[in-house]
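User: quick one, fold this
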Amino acid sequence: MQALEYGFYEAGMTATWQKIHNQLAIENKFLGTDLQIMLQQLGWKIYYWNPDPSQNKIWDAEDEELHPLKPGRVWNPVWGGHAIRYSNIRNKQDELGRGIYDLYGPGVDDFKTLVGFGTKTPEALKAAPFFVGIAHAGYHVFPGRYGEVIEAHSKRKVDDVDNVEFSQFNPMGGGGPKWTELEKYRSGLIAVPYEL
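Assistant:
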């Protein structure tokens, strides 16, 4: 949020950023999907990312094994939901003809450019001077630049030397978004201020 605030300030759009921040603060909805919806309304493009969609069902099974449901629950927010989200994007369209990520997420402008890149950083993302990515439907949010992910870790102390990490966007090859022992980020959305 601070990186975006600074970026909007530098672009002379402080009032626009204040409107976005105020809207998100109404219900404390600082989720990545809510932020990306607002960025998309400003003309940002939303890209679906997934290094290997053929693995979606395997990844979903792993997520469910790592995070079993508690009694009375039907969904766990740390699950990737890779198969259903990929299917939605490919098969369901909103009124503008964009693929739908999920019921609450933004419409996806492009679901091909950042798909199937395996263990390499997608070339198209290396040209982006700034982007805002999410994984697990906004559970994990990360800014980035020129193909590099910038992550802060909420479970570490704010003054921990490893709190902020920089890595190439390459989740399957050991880069960002970085996995933890229990959370494996393998698909999501990236918002970019223009078309890649």
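User: anything notable?
Assistant: The first strand starts at residue 45 and ends at 50.
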